[in-house]
Specification:
Elements: E1 6-13, E2 22-29, E3 32-37, E4 47-49, E5 54-57, E6 59-61, E7 84-89, H1 104-115, H2 119-125, H3 133-142, E8 148-151, E9 153-154, H4 155-163, H5 165-170, H6 175-191, E10 195-200, H7 222-235, E11 239-244, H8 247-257, E12 261-266, H9 280-292, E13 297-302, E14 309-310, H10 322-328, H11 332-340, H12 342-351, E15 369-372, H13 376-379, H14 386-393, H15 397-407, E16 413-415, H16 423-430, E17 435-438, H17 454-464, H18 471-486, E18 502-505, E19 511-521, E20 525-533, E21 535-540, E22 543-547, E23 550-551
Parallel strand pairs: 1-4, 1-5, 6-7, 7-8, 9-10, 10-11, 11-12, 12-13, 13-17
Antiparallel strand pairs: 1-2, 2-3, 5-18, 14-16, 15-16, 18-21, 19-20, 21-22, 22-23
Helix pairs in contact: 1-2, 4-6, 6-7, 7-8, 10-12, 14-15
C-alpha cells in the first residue's frame, strides 16, 4: 500500500517563509505534508510531474464577503480559481449572525445594496438554519467547502440584534445593551470567531444600507467600539479588522484589546469603493511609528488595478453623492422614473464637476466607454465614450450618460480603464514591513468588478512584469504573512506536518483571462467573473480541488475556529 496519497515530483519549492527557492519533492498523506525532500515515485498512489513548475502554499485571502456565497459555491470563486485555499469572511462588520428569524429579510436587503448580491439570490441559496453566531458557525461547518474558512464576529448584525436596527443607527448603546453585546462577542469568540470587524466610514459612507442610510458601524459611538474591543483582551486572543477610522482610533483599539489590528486600506489612489484614507506615505509612516509604540497594526493594501464593468441596474458606488443616491435607490422602475425627473436630473448636473474620479470610479463620466447595449439604438454606440456622445449631441455628460442607460432600461454596460499605478510608489507600498496585499472583496460587488483575481495579478503584473519584489517575498506576502497576521496557526507555508494547502503553477504561462458574465447564481442571477490560465493544481487539505483550471468537485475545506484545524478535521 502506498505511503503517500500524492507526490508532487521535482518542482521548484517556494515555501512562503522567504526561504530561497529549491528543487524538491512534496509528499502528501492524510491531508498533510508528510515529507519535503527526495521521495520515490513507488511510494505514492499518484505522482504529479512538477518539473519547471512552481510549488507554493495556497494563498490566504483575508478580505472576503463569501458569508452567503459559500452556501451555493463551495469553492468561493473568484478566489478558488486564483489559487486561494483559505479565506476570512465577516469583514467590515457585515454578516448574517446573529439574526432573528423575523429579521432575515431585512438582513439580506442590507447586504443586497451594500455588497451588490440580490436578496432573492441570498434567500434562494442560504439555509438560514441559525439565529445565533455559534449556530452560524455550526452551519458553516456542516456546509461542504472547497476552501478553508475563518470568520470574524461582525458588529453590524450583532448591534442590530441587541438594539434593533434603527436604534443602533441613531444612538449609542445603553449600559445594559453594551454589556449584552460584549457577552455575545465573548460567546462568539468561544465558538470560534477570530475577532471583531467594523466599517467606520462615517455619515458619508459609500457602502450603505438598502434605504441609502449609512451602515450601523459607520456612525457608532467610539466608546461602544472600544468596549467591544476590550472583550478580546479578556479572551487573550483574536484580532480586529476595520475599514476606515482614524489612525488614533486604530491605536486605541490596539491599546484596549491588546490584540493586532488589520487596518484598511493602504491605497495609492482609491480603493474599490472610491475611498482614500490619506496619502500612502503618511500612512506608511504611521504604521511604522504605531508598531514602534507597541501596537501591532497591519495595513492591508489595494494591489489590483481597479476597473469596473457596470450597469445602472445594480450600481451603488455613487452613494457618497446625495444627488446620485436620490436616483439610484429602489427598483429599476423607480430608478428610471427618478432619472427622468427634471429636478433630480438638474441636481445631478449641478453636483457634477470635471475631476479625475466620481464616486468609486477612478475616471470621469465622459471617459466611460459603452461596452454593451441591449437595444439597436444603444448597440450602435458600442465602443464610444460618453464624452464623445455628449459632444456629438451637444449635451451635458450627465445627460448623455443617463439617456443612454435609460434607452436600455438601465442595462447598458459601461467600462472604465484600469486604474494606473505609479510603479515606484507601488513598490514602496507593497514592500512595507507592515503591508498585506489583497482586499479582494471576493463575494461582493460581483456585478461590476473582479478584484478576487488579486493574487494572480500580483504575481504576473507586479512581480513578473514589473519586478517589484522577488517571488520568495511575493509568496510570503500572499500566504505566510497574512496567515500570521490573522491568526491562521497552521496555514500559509509549506512545512512538514502542516495541512497540505498547495498550488502548483507555470510561472511563465500564468495569466488572467478576459472577464465574462456567468449566470450561475441562485434565482437566475448573474455575476461578472474572471478566471486564470497557468494554475496546474490547487490542493486543499491534501485533495485536488482544481486541476488545469477545472474543478474536481471535491470539498475538503474546513472551518477554522480561531484559525486552528481540529485534530480530526482532515480526512485521509
Amino acid at each position: 500500500m502506498p505511503r503517500y496519497d500524492l507526490l508532487i515530483k521535482g518542482g521548484t519549492v517556494i515555501d512562503g517563509l522567504r526561504t530561497p527557492r529549491y528543487t524538491a519533492d512534496v509528499a502528501i498523506a492524510g491531508g498533510r505534508i508528510a515529507q519535503i525532500g527526495g521521495v520515490s515515485e513507488s511510494d505514492a498512489a499518484r505522482v504529479f510531474d512538477a518539473k519547471d513548475l512552481i510549488v507554493a502554499p495556497g494563498f490566504v485571502d483575508l478580505h472576503t464577503h463569501y458569508d452567503s456565497q459559500v452556501f451555493w459555491d463551495p469553492w468561493c470563486t473568484l478566489s478558488g480559481w486564483h489559487g486561494v485555499t483559505s479565506v476570512a469572511i465577516g469583514n467590515c462588520g457585515f454578516g448574517f449572525a446573529p439574526v432573528k428569524p423575523e429579521d432575515r429579510e431585512r438582513a439580506m436587503l442590507t447586504m443586497e445594496r451594500n455588497e451588490a448580491v440580490r436578496a432573492t439570490t441570498m434567500a434562494a441559496g442560504m439555509p438560514w438554519d441559525w439565529e445565533t453566531y455559534p449556530e452560524f458557525l455550526d452551519s458553516l461547518e456542516r456546509t461542504p467547502k472547497g476552501v478553508n474558512m475563518l470568520s470574524y464576529v461582525p458588529l453590524n448584525p450583532l448591534m442590530a440584534y441587541v438594539m434593533g436596527h434603527q436604534a443602533a443607527k441613531e444612538r449609542r448603546a445603553t449600559e445594559e445593551e453594551r454589556e449584552r453585546i460584549c457577552m455575545l462577542i465573548s460567546e462568539s469568540l468561544d465558538a470560534g470567531g477570530c475577532g471583531i470587524s467594523a466599517q467606520l466610514l462615517g455619515p458619508g459612507s459609500v457602502q450603505r444600507d438598502y434605504d441609502g442610510t449609512p451602515m450601523i458601524t459607520d456612525t457608532m459611538a467610539p466608546e461602544d467600539l472600544l468596549a467591544f474591543a476590550a472583550v478580546l483582551r479578556e479572551k487573550q486572543r483574536g484580532f480586529i479588522q476595520v475599514l476606515g477610522g482614524s489612525p488614533e482610533l486604530g491605536e486605541q483599539l490596539c491599546e484596549v484589546s491588546g490584540r493586532p489590528l488589520i487596518w484598511n486600506a493602504l491605497v495609492l489612489l482609491l480603493d474599490q469603493h472610491g475611498n482614500t484614507y490619506g496619502h500612502y506615505k503618511d500612512r506608511l509612516r504611521w504604521l511604522e511609528e504605531a508598531n514602534a509604540r507597541g501596537h501591532r497594526i497591519f495595513g492591508q493594501t489595494v494591489t489590483a488595478q481597479n476597473n469596473y464593468e457596470f450597469s445602472l441596474t445594480d450600481w451603488n458606488l455613487f452613494d457618497p453623492i446625495p444627488a446620485w443616491r436620490a436616483v439610484t435607490l429602489g427598483s429599476v422602475e423607480e430608478r428610471m422614473r427618478r432619472m427622468r425627473d427634471p429636478e433630480l436630473r438638474r441636481a445631478i448636473r449641478d453636483s457634477y464637476r470635471p475631476r479625475p474620479f466620481i464616486g468609486a470610479l477612478s475616471t470621469d463620466i465622459p471617459d466611460l466607454r459603452i461596452a454593451e447595449g441591449f437595444t439597436d439604438e444603444v448597440r450602435a454606440l458600442e465602443g464610444y465614450t460618453v464624452g464623445e456622445i455628449a459632444k456629438r449631441d451637444g449635451s451635458h455628460p450627465v445627460d448623455a450618460f443617463l439617456d443612454v442607460a435609460l434607452a436600455d432600461d438601465l442595462r447598458t454596460v459601461f467600462v472604465t480603464p484600469p486604474q494606473e499605478f505609479e510603479m515606484d510608489a507601488m513598490r514602496e507600498m507593497a514592500n512595507s514591513p507592515f503591508a498585506l496585499p489583497g482586499i479582494s472583496d471576493g463575494g461582493a460587488h460581483m456585478k461590476f468588478m473582479t478584484t478576487g483575481r488579486y493574487a494572480t495579478e500580483f504575481l504576473t503584473f507586479l512581480v513578473r512584469d514589473n519586478g517589484i519584489m522577488d517571488l520568495e517575498q511575493a509568496h510570503w506576502r500572499l500566504s505566510g504573512y497574512p496567515a500570521l497576521a490573522a491568526g491562521f496557526t497552521d496555514r500559509g507555508v509549506l512545512r512538514e506536518g502542516d495541512p497540505a494547502d498547495i498550488i502548483v503553477y507555470d510561472y511563465d504561462a500564468l495569466k488572467l483571462l478576459p472577464t465574462e458574465r456567468l449566470h450561475d447564481f441562485p434565482a437566475g442571477d448573474w455575476r461578472l467573473s474572471q478566471k486564470a490560465d497557468g494554475y496546474r493544481l490547487t490542493i486543499v487539505n491534501g485533495q485536488v480541488t482544481f486541476e488545469d483550471g477545472e474543478c474536481t468537485g471535491r470539498t475538503p475545506g474546513v472551518l477554522l475556529r480561531h484559525g486552528r484545524t481540529a485534530p480530526d478535521a482532515l480526512v485521509a
